[in-house]
Amino acid sequence: MTVGSPTAAVPAPVLRQQVLVLYLLTSALDSEVLGWSRYDGTGRTSPTTGDGAEPPYGTGLDALRDGWRLIQASQLLPPHPGHEYDVSFLKHEFFFERIERLHAGA
Amino acid sequence: MENKRFLLDSVRMARFVARGSLRLDAVVPADLNAEALAVLAQEVAPVPYGTPLSQAYAPDSLPARLLAVPQVDGALRSLVGPEPLVDHHAVHVREPRGGEAQPLHADAIIDVRPDAFDVQLMYYPQAVTLDMGGTLSVPGSHLRRTNESDTGRYQNLRGQDRLVCPAGTVVFVHHGLWHGGRRNDSDTTRYMFKIRFNPTVRQRLLWDASDLHDPRVRSELDVTFPWYEQAVGRLERYNRTLLWRELTGDPGFDLDHWVTRVSNRPQEATA
Which of B166, B131, B169 is nearest to B24 (CA)? Predict the structure, then answer.
């Protein structure tokens, strides 16, 4: 009887999160991108303030089509009474993530 | 005697009210720019908060000579009036190939005065190229009610202004304008000298208002910016209208009926 050699341990992949934040024209995910931010857990890039002139996608939906996963969207909240005409933070914020494989772990 | 030639006109004042900034390209002479680079590398001695401008700087000092440039003097007078207080000043240095971009912020703390504003003078004694980390600013952001760097999450907004300018450029910004020093990816140290001014008089018609009814005033005030949300962009013009009313003393001024419509509450009963 032949005893097979034990299966070699498969190294677990090392995964890191990339985050994309898009600010849109309206609360609709398929509306135009007005602002954008990126954070890269892989360490391969170092996005920062004022580092771009053109948005990475035309709409939020375009990001989905390119493989980004939506993980959070701004709630639609009524204005506080008495502050209906105030302007403040950007209202239509959408967080996306993408999981990148760094390399096979030991 | 006041040098009326260099006061802002109503069209430029309206542009400031809409954008939150006023840019004067290459107004400072080359010899003063050269001197400034040496002075700023050594820092500029502080003045106590709230020092009247006439007492803040020696006549032959760099700040005094900068503020005596006619275009600078006229703009400052138009924005905050005579004898403002020097809130503080600071030399900002962006080291070559080093440091980080500042998070997008407004200076000091949240400041929602509806009928007054401070201005900050930003002076660039050397030519600033895109990779030197010139100041990032967001046109039309000054009326947003946010506190200091709570906006730091925003890296890029459509229509943002990444300053590239010739030597001797001066920019005046409203105290609420979102801005930040960008990362300097060049081999050149970049300097900027900033002075914040507090008005001591009511900011009403301090500029040359002889063109107050020029149609371009209205078109400047009605401008929108590419980063505005569709609905909030309307509120921006509502708030801009209120500020223009304060600056001109004209309670009936409006843009496309935005304020008038929602203020209409007739009290008279039918006959």
Answer: B169
Contacts of B146 in chain A (CB under 8 A): 88-89
- The first and second tokens of residue B17, run together, are 């009210």
Q: Of the candidates A21, A26, A87, which has its C-beta nearest B235's C-beta?
A: A87
Where do the H-state alpha helices sit in chain A?
Answer: 60-65
Q: Between β-strands A93-104 and A69-73, what pairing exists: parallel, antiparallel or unpaired?
A: antiparallel
CA distances from B129 to A90, B14, B166 (A): 29, 28, 9
Let me know if A86 is exposed, middle or buried by CB neighbors in 10 A (0-12, 13-18, 19+): middle
A88 to B153: CB separation less than 8 angstroms, yes or no: no
ipTM: 0.93
Shortest distance between the Cα of A24 and any Cα of chain B, in A, equals 7
pLDDT tens, position by position, B107-133: 999 999 999 999 999 999 999 999 998
Q: Does A25 touch chain B (CB under 8 A)?
A: yes
Contact A49 B182 (CB under 8 A): yes
- Token output for B118: 């401070």
Residue A55 C-alpha, separation from nearest chain B C-alpha, in angstroms = 7
What count of other Cβ atoms lies within 10 Å of the Cβ of residue B168? 22
Which pLDDT does position A9 carry in this prediction?
Answer: 78
Q: B10 near B204, Cβ under 8 Å?
A: no
